From TrEMBL:
The gene is cshA. This is DEAD-box ATP-dependent RNA helicase CshA. DEAD-box RNA helicase possibly involved in RNA degradation. Unwinds dsRNA in both 5'- and 3'-directions, has RNA-dependent ATPase activity. It is an enzyme of class 3 (hydrolase). Residues 484-494 have a biased composition (Polar residues). One of its GO terms (cellular component) is ribosome. Its main location: cytoplasm. Belongs to the DEAD box helicase family. CshA subfamily. Keywords: ATP-binding, Cytoplasm, Helicase, Hydrolase, Nucleotide-binding, RNA-binding, Stress response. It comes from Aquibacillus halophilus.
Length: 494
């Protein structure tokens, strides 16, 4: 157990860490912050939700001279939402040092971005495409950058951004420090990545599994045509506080969202075809609990840190094991628990075994719940509400009417009627989704570079200890904490 004090972190950042409620460093932080502060290039791999952002953020902020109004640190991340989130975390960490971070991403007005860039941020957190745009138009000056970070490096290289990343890094002085982080780092990608770095130190937090142990992993075997009914039965049985449902395509996400509305769920979809404004508003609604279900493509699979996500459903099994690791990693973060349930069609069972083998984790079979199970799940919520009301003991003014009712009917009838009134009635509107074809092992990713999984790809670091301690921040489901985070986080885009 290492406290941040022992890592020689400066006073203003210590103050920020205290404010954020971080008490001890996580294993990846403990191992990479000292290397980062020595100026070394680092490849850092650790499981999802174990604090990699602060692991690269802290050393980067330490090196910033806040009196120099030039971009000195650059973080590149694969999606817009992630760029915003990382920028916010850096803002929180660097606040007392006076370090300013700016997210720069596509879908935002160029003019506004250019103005914000002229304002002299110390750190820019960008998506690769938009950053290159600025570099080519000479509307960004990154010639003073001394620290560059590739967050979710494997994903960016996987997506074919390698040339873009090379071009970006070419615009930065060669004597820079380069940090590269992800929960997954297949060997091929690690080899490519290391060509961008100088004798990188590799830190892989040791663990048997690629996934954190606080995510309970299940699968249901289900035919394509039954997926939607099984999904709503599961939702009614599990009654998640916040759930993310991953679908394979944008169309799939739209159809599932519509279907969920038809059955009375508060759900919204997020994918790459939506306007940036819509993407942000959907995510904000989810973060603040205004909707309980986020239906998403893989655009939401990497890095997003939404506190209070209790369940992840893979309505369609992900194409590769890395994607599985990241998707399910949207729950079970910062030491909290979560559940991940993957829908597997009979033909996809071999693919499931491949995922188990590569991630070295056991995915347990779950019996698909029946309509009756779902109904009981919903009634259970009502019973909990009733229990709460009984415990509050503010029932005096209802007693007389209650007694009158009990003179007329037997008690089971009265309670049944009350339960019926209070329970969300299932709407069984028929929903038909357009079928997606099963994933096959040979399929690879969009026909592109097949990976050799035999080597095990490397277990994302795991902390057996998982000893997150966050002062005053309760663990487990907690909407209040969620709301607090959601509203306190500064959105520099608006
Ligand atoms: N030392 C710490 N103590 C308590 N909480 C922490 C600590 N470090 C990070 N956290 C919190 O843990 C959560 C997960 O952190 P972060 O998003 O950096 O994980 P990650 O390792 O980057 O995950 P992913 O692989 O999904 O991107 C965040 O809410 C973060 O604020
Ligand atoms: Mg991350």
């Amino acid at each position: 157990m290492t406290t941040f004090n022992e890592l020689n972190i400066s006073k203003p950042i210590m103050k920020a860490l205290e404010k954020m409620g971080f008490e001890e460093a996580t294993p990846i932080q403990e191992q990479t912050i000292p290397l980062g502060m020595q100026g070394k290039d680092v490849i850092g791999q650790a499981q999802t939700g174990t604090g990699k952002t602060a692991a690269f953020g802290i050393p980067m902020i330490e090196k910033i001279d806040q009196n120099v109004k030039k971009i000195q640190g650059l973080v590149v991340a694969p999606t817009r939402e992630l760029a915003i989130q990382v920028s916010e975390e850096i803002h929180r960490l660097g606040k007392f040092k006076g370090v300013r971070a700016l997210p720069v991403y596509g879908g935002q007005h160029m003019d506004r971005q250019i103005r914000a860039l002229k304002d002299g941020p110390h750190i820019v957190v960008a998506t690769p495409g938009r950053l290159l745009d600025h570099i080519r138009r000479k509307t960004i000056n990154i010639s003073n950058v001394h620290t560059a970070v590739l967050d979710e490096a494997d994903e960016m290289l996987n997506m074919g951004f390698i040339d873009d990343i090379r071009d970006i890094l070419k615009s930065i002085p060669e004597e820079r420090q380069t940090l590269l982080f992800s929960a997954t780092m297949p060997k091929e990608i690690r080899d490519i990545a290391s060509t961008l770095m100088k004798q990188p130190e590799e830190v892989k937090v040791k663990s048997k599994e690629m996934t954190v142990s606080n995510i309970a992993q299940f699968f249901v075997e289900v035919h394509e045509k039954q997926k939607f009914d099984t999904l709503t039965n599961l939702l009614d049985t599990h009654t998640p506080a916040l759930a993310i449902i991953f679908g394979r395509t944008k169309k799939r996400v739209d159809e599932v969202t519509e279907g969920l509305h038809a059955r009375g769920f508060r759900a919204e979809g997020i994918h790459g075809d939506l306007t940036q404004g819509k993407r942000m508003s959907v995510l904000n609604k989810f973060k603040t609990g205004k909707i309980e279900i986020l239906v998403a493509t893989d655009v939401a699979a990497r890095g997003l840190d939404i506190s209070g996500v209790t369940h992840v459903y893979n309505l369609d099994v992900p194409q590769d094991p890395e994607s599985y690791v990241h998707r399910i990693g949207r729950t079970g973060r910062a030491g909290k628990t979560g559940e991940a349930i993957s829908f597997i069609t009979p033909r996809e069972i071999p693919h499931l075994h491949l995922i188990e083998k590569v991630t070295k984790s056991k995915i347990k079979r779950l019996q698909a719940p029946s309509m009756d199970d779902a109904r009981r799940g919903q009634q259970q919520i009502t019973v909990e509400k009733l229990n709460d009301t009984i415990n509050k003991k503010e029932l005096q003014e209802y007693r007389e009417t209650a007694t009158e009712l009990l003179d007329q009917y037997d008690s089971v009838t009265v309670v049944s009627a009350a339960l019926k009134m209070l329970t969300k009635e299932r709407r069984d509107s028929p929903v038909t989704l357009t079928s997606v074809s099963p994933v096959s092992i040979k399929g690879g990713k969009g026909g592109g570079g097949k990976k050799n999984y035999r080597g095990g790809g490397g277990g994302g670091g795991g902390d057996k200890r998982n000893n997150f301690s966050r002062k005053g921040k309760p663990a487990g489901r907690n909407r209040k904490f969620q709301n607090k985070r959601g509203s306190s986080s500064r959105n520099q885009d608006s």
